[in-house]
User: What shape does this take?
Amino acid sequence: MMKYIPLMIGIFSAILLLVSGIAIKFHKAYWLISGYNTMSEEKKKNVDIKNLGEFLANILFVMSSIILIATLLMFLNQMVAAGIMFFLMLPVSIYTVIKAQTYDGNTREPDGTMKTGTKVLIGVVVGFLVLTMAGVGTLLYFSNKPAEYSIQDGTMRIGGLYGEEIKLSDIVSITLKEQIPEIQFKNNGSALGSQKKGYFKLKDIGKAKLFVNTNKPPFIFRKRKVRPADIKYE
Assistant: This one.
């Protein structure tokens, strides 16, 4: 069931954008346009709302398509292609922020040049979008990167996202299995396609920490001693 959750969220998001675009373009639901819906009536007179609505509706259709395609690619475990699709949102978003100003006369000086305050606002928004996408890209990279293992001085070290150090003396048993129990939900971790890292709840096991690619069996099951520090997290 858990593997369908990202798919359902992605499809819901795509449908929401699609419906919003239809409402704006064909039903003149301009109250959905952020910024315009809070303007005074005087300022609204300076906005070419018909063409602005047409433009933003078309952008919503494009974003809906991007999210739907990227979601389906993730579900099919095509993570690289899905990442490329998601990153298309950045240039589309930047273009939208800049282009939308051309329909708003409130952002212009009497001579037609853009007001300084508007330029600063656009710069801040674009900078925020770039930083956000850079952060998401970094997270996706490390989430999709296989964990690195090493054993030295009686300690097993697991590198990367959610990595940790485990004393070999704390390990009770190690077994090799072809399947892992059903993943019921994620407590605190990363679940990109078949790559699972972090804390999850497994059927018949309960809380477990995973560093696996569910498409590549066999799987190593490691059980360690329950320490006092662990009990309060169960």
About this structure: Residues 228-234 have pLDDT under 50 and may be disordered.
